[in-house]
Amino acid sequence: MLSRLISLLKVNKYTASVCAGVGVYSVTWVVFHATKTEFSDKISLGDDYKFRDIVIAGGVVGLITTIWFHLGVPKTNTIQRITESRVRDMTSLWQGTLQYLCSLVLLQVALLYVASRMFHTLCLVYMPLYLSESVSEDSESLATVPLLTYIASFVPSFGIKYLSNNLGNKTIYMVGAAVSVIACLWIQYGSGEDFNTRQIYGVAVLLGIGSSTTMISSLCLTADLIGIHTEQGAFVYSAVTFADKLLNGIVVFIIEYLECSSKDLCPHYYRDILVMVCGGSALLGMLVLATLTSVKIGQDRYQSSLHLVVEHVNRPRRPLLHKLENNAMAEIHPIYKTSNSYS
């Protein structure tokens, strides 16, 4: 039950992120369409004001929503007394964190998240550059193709929460990675007028489905790794996010450093980046997942929750808190009944 709720939360979080991306590219399309001229549809240095307007519009919306969030979320001031038992809890927390740090499963799940995030990020960054380099003469495609990618991301975000219970997050990740590889191969071998005008939108759909599927399932696998040990949750998410930011930054730096000084030397540079780097990250995720199949994510959840129940029963009585504790234990493990509460 807890894992299902966490997975649902991750799906909702990613859906909100997709909505934000759809909004950004919708504004981009409106700006390009409204300023379209009969003489030239390609992006040039004279179009800098268009991007300025897009950034201002996005910044204003972001500022308004941030202020709304801080004003709308109530804050509670609580004072916690540090007791001997709390010190022991903090010591066990550090011990559990060190165990996670030395865990091979944490490294595998972090690599899964990094691979999915790298595919998602690099597709968004280099798809417009690829379109400008190889595919379309129409500036509106710089907005419509990524916009279609985001819209296609909605399909998995709504379906995964139902499929994860039957297929499992590992199977869903593998399917999403396979779709991502197919999209990269389509980019590599696609050519001609039909590809530039119509097939590119099919590529955009596959990229959206593949990236969102792997992203959501990797987040769900991270939640499965944490299980009921929510006290280590902040550390686990911080670790995988740090690995994501660091490796993505290094990859983007290397890509920009290796770019040819002249377009004639590398006429299909960004196409090769989408195929090799994005496709390689999808293959990396599949490889890591193959090594992860022998490990049951969250396999000790039942035993750990049973241990928590036994530990809770053996604790000294706390009349003022026992009702809340009993309710919490009943949610953690099904064998615990509120009728066992102490009076």
UniProtKB/TrEMBL annotation:
Q: Which GO terms describe its molecular function?
A: symporter activity
Q: Which organism is it from?
A: Timema californicum
Membrane spanning residue stretches: 12-34, 54-73, 93-115, 141-160, 172-189, 201-222, 234-258, 273-295
**Which InterPro entries does the UniProt entry name for this protein?**
MFS_2, MFS_trans_sf
Source taxon at top rank: Eukaryota
Q: Which family does it belong to?
A: Belongs to the major facilitator superfamily.
Q: Name one GO cellular component term.
A: plasma membrane
GO biological process, alphabetically ordered: carbohydrate transport
- The name of this protein is (California timema) hypothetical protein
Alphabetized, the UniProt keywords read:
Membrane, Transmembrane, Transmembrane helix
| Statement: the UniProt record of this protein carries the keyword Electron transport | no
